[in-house]
Amino acid sequence: MVNCNLRNCNLEHCNFEQANLTNCVMDGSFLIGCNFSRARVDFASSRNCMFHDASSRSHAILEGSSWRGTDFEDSNLSCVNMCASSFKRAKLRHCNLRSSNLAGADLGESDLSGCNLQDANLRGANTLHATFNKT
């Protein structure tokens, strides 16, 4: 699925475990309940996506996956399990990361400016050279 166009798709509860979605465009898609465990989604675009639906308590699983350089701007990633995942150089501007599990994640050189990180678990995460607020 490398270089695929999944813009504005309803992909709720799809299983992308171990899939290669490098350079995939998923802007505006519903990714609620999707399993991205150990998937490779490097240099993709996931702007304005929904990874969590509070009304159904359903959320995506991104554990152990690679999202290096991916653009997540304005996406809802609240309550999502992203532990041990790579977000190196990812653009996470204005994302909702409330109550997300980022334990052991690589956030090095990522842009997290304007993010809601309330109650997020960042234990052991690499935040070296990450940006939390633009001035």
Commentary on this structure:
This protein is mostly loops and 135 residues long. The chain has no helices and two strands. A two-stranded antiparallel sheet has the order 1-2. It is globular and about 30 Å long. The termini are far apart. The mean pLDDT is 92.
Structural features:
135 residues; little secondary structure; two-stranded antiparallel sheet; 2 strands; 0% helix; 3% strand; globular
Can you summarize this structure?
The protein has 135 residues and is mostly loops. It has strands at residues 52-53, 58-59. Strand 1 and strand 2 form a beta hairpin.
Radius of gyration: 13 Å
Shape: globular
| Class by alpha and beta content | little secondary structure
The strand count comes to 2
Describe the sheet with the most strands. Answer: 2 strands, antiparallel
Note the gap between the termini: 38 Å
Q: What portion of residues is helical?
A: under 10%
Strand order of the largest sheet: 1-2
Number of H- or I-type helical stretches? 0
- Could you report the average pLDDT, rounded to the nearest whole number? 92
Uncertain residue segments? none
N-to-C series of helices and strands: EE
Please specify the SSE layout and strand pairing.
Elements: E1 52-53, E2 58-59
